[in-house]
Amino acid sequence: MPEISVVVPVKDEAGNVVPLLNEIAAALAGEAAEFIFVDDASRDDTAGILLKEKARIPQLRVLKHEKNGGQSAAIRSGVLAARGRLIVTLDGDGQNIPADIQKLLARYRDPARPLRVRMVAGQRVGRKDTAAKRLASRLANAIRSRLLNDDTRDTGCGLKLFERETFLRLPYFDNIHRFLPALFRREGAGIAFADVGHRPRGSGRSKYGVFDRALISIRDLMGVMWLMARRRNTGETREL
User: Fold this and answer.
1) What is the reported pLDDT for 234?
2) Of 1, 4, 124, 228, whose CB neighbour count within 10 A is largest?
3) DSSP string, 6-34
């Protein structure tokens, strides 16, 4: 059984999936790992290209949504199907650097880390997005961090490591992937952070615009604020 399940949501990423898969496999060589690519109803041959790679990389699993559900739905489908105790997520456009998975694992496996740490979140350094996206992200992160007190400067980074069991306890909603540090803390879990790299998209184009994402984030932020306020902390639960 794998210890680590890498979950990669993809939609119309036919030109990116094979190089990304190769880098993930190289980054986790020697680890007990599986690689789950979740095709979110792509209109190109993303799934077909991945299926051809299964003979070469037996750790690869390919899931496909019948209908488009968005990034959070694809991540959740991958986590539900995963067999590993630890989940690693990264974006399917190739902008996250798979070699940085080892930075997250090192933080999680550090003997000095508090046992209550259930997530290591990547924080991008030197982002390669457009100036408009960087500005919008900086403003959104500042507002979110102030209102949710999640202590991360980059909750939108797709590269994260977390324990599967804790994730499955979270209340699910669309765009949950943008609020995971706050929601893990809502469950009493500790969060660690690691600086990771970022690079330009390999091929294709972004699925998100600056303004449509901002409008959705305001609504989601209000919902997460409500969830945080409605949680009563009972501390550790012990069987007597």
Assistant:
1) 74
2) 124
3) EEEEESS-TTTHHHHHHHHHHHTTTS-EE
Nearest to 173 by CA among 232, 217, 140, 206: 217
The Cα–Cα gap between 52 and 223 comes to 41
Counting beta carbons within 10 angstroms of the beta carbon of residue 232, is it exposed (0 to 12), middle (13 to 18) or buried (19 or more)?
Answer: exposed
- What's the pLDDT at 132? 63
pLDDT tens digits, 139-186: 766 676 777 877 788 888 999 999 999 999 999 999 999 899 999 999
Distance from C-alpha of 52 to C-alpha of 115, rounded to nearest angstrom: 41
- Rg of the chain over Cα atoms, rounded to whole angstroms, equals 17
Ordered by where they begin, the domains of the chain are 4-229 (3.90.550.10)
User: For residue 216, what pLDDT band results from cuts at 50, 70 and 90?
Assistant: low
Strands ordered across the beta sheet of 117-124: 60-64, 33-39, 4-10, 86-89, 160-163, 117-124, 190-196
86-89 vs 160-163, strand pairing mode: antiparallel
